[in-house]
Design brief:
By secondary structure, this protein is mainly β. It has one domain. It has no helices and twelve strands. The strands form three sheets. Strands 3, 5, 6, 7, 11 and 12 form a six-stranded mixed sheet that branches. Strands 1, 2, 4 and 10 form a four-stranded mixed sheet that branches. A two-stranded antiparallel sheet has the order 8-9. The two termini are 17 Å apart. This is Thiol:disulfide interchange protein DsbD N-terminal domain-containing protein. Keywords: Signal.
């Protein structure tokens, strides 16, 4: 197992993710771990709704859900999010090249000050 470059979705305003493709090096014929860190500023992520993180690659779609500790004062929200780990298998016959992929997150968040809650769809282009 080889750990890959960490991908980060910064949810400042939670309207969109990074627009430039993030480049992740992978090796054919191996299983590797992609670590995804979610970072929020002025927003809380709900623990009671169906949040989801997906990595779509030429070799299939991987998915997970955010995990973490409850918020100290608002137990229905996350206070600390743990990095999400996705195990990516790259087939042995894959030639060295740049392959487009996409990291997506469906998140149910609430703005701390205004207590405005909504479902947000974030997309980050990735090159493998």
């Amino acid at each position: 197992m080889r750990r890959l470059l960490v991908l980060l979705l910064c949810c400042t305003g939670v309207t969109s993710a990074l627009s430039d493709p993030q480049v992740v090096s992978v090796r054919s014929g191996s299983t590797q771990t992609v670590m995804i860190h979610l970072a929020f500023r002025d927003w809380l992520l709900s623990r009671e709704t169906p949040n989801e993180i997906r990595l779509q690659t030429p070799w299939g779609t991987l998915q997970t859900i955010p995990q973490g500790r409850p918020h100290d004062q608002r137990s229905t929200y996350f206070g600390l999010l743990y990095p999400a780990a996705l195990r990516l298998y790259v087939p042995g016959q894959v030639a060295a090249a740049r392959y487009p992929a996409r990291l997506e997150a469906t998140l149910y968040v609430c703005q701390k000050q205004q207590q405005l809650c909504s479902r947000r769809q974030l997309v980050l282009p990735v090159v493998l």
